Amino acid sequence: MAVEDALVKTFNALTQGIPKLMLTQVAQSEKRKEAILKNCASNLTKTGFEDCDGLESHKVKTRTVLL
């Protein structure tokens, strides 16, 4: 019985940390997206054309994080 209780407590502790970790990753992903968008706007004003290659790779990373 003590072993089962210990396993349940360990499982609960591990699963409670998962949502917090995912929220942290999403927040970091959003910060990265903002940085890419600022860079795109900067490139647009400097060169007269939009250079947003990084944004497409960011979308793939975001989908991976959110799944």
Secondary structure class reads: mainly alpha
Number of strands: 0
CA-based shape: rod-shaped
- Radius of gyration using CA atoms only: 20 Å
Order of helices and strands: HH
Annotation keywords:
67 residues; mainly alpha; 90% helix; disordered C terminus
Structural features, described:
The protein has two helices and no strands. The chain has a domain at 23-67. The radius of gyration is 20 Å and the shape is rod-shaped. The protein is an all-alpha fold. It has helices spanning 2-47, 53-66. α1 packs antiparallel against α2 (53-66). Helix content is 90%, strand content 0%. The model is unreliable at 58-67 (pLDDT under 50).
Write a compact overview of the structure shown.
The protein has 67 residues and is mainly alpha-helical. The protein is built from 2 helices and no strands.
Per-chain topology:
Elements: H1 2-47, H2 53-66
Helix pairs in contact: 1-2
